[in-house]
Amino acid sequence: MGFDSINCSYFKYDTIAWVFDEANSDFLGDFEVDYESNENASIVYAALAVDKELQPDKVKRQISVVNGKLLVHFEAVEARFLRASFSAFVDVLTLATKTIEQFGQGMEL
């Protein structure tokens, strides 16, 4: 299991945890991004929630907003599916975050 805190120019991952669940033979990934407001976290959630997993039998993703943080949980049958799903997810997450930074507060959902 690994925990990391990563700073990037667009957002900060507060916590990332990757785990192999031996009982279920699943690879799990959890992370949170602190947007410091429910409004911004909800905007990003709305952008990401419409993008469904391409292989839902191999990767499951749950997203929620709690206290201004975007919480994300991944479950995958193989590490490579977890990695690919996470990578694609972070691309859209970065784009949504850049949009908020560019256009500022008060964006309508």
Automatic annotation (TrEMBL):
Can you say where in the cell this protein is located?
Cytoplasm; Nucleus
Entry keyword set? Cytoplasm, Nucleus, tRNA processing
What cellular component GO annotations does this protein have? cytoplasm; EKC/KEOPS complex; nucleus
Q: What is its main location?
A: cytoplasm
- Would you kindly state one Gene Ontology biological process term found in this protein's UniProt entry? tRNA processing
Alphabetical list of InterPro entries matching this protein: CTAG/Pcc1
Q: Which PANTHER family match?
A: EKC/KEOPS COMPLEX SUBUNIT PCC1 FAMILY MEMBER, EKC_KEOPS COMPLEX SUBUNIT LAGE3
**Family as reported in the entry's similarity comment:** Belongs to the CTAG/PCC1 family.
Q: What is this protein called?
A: Uncharacterized protein
* Origin species: Citrus x changshan-huyou
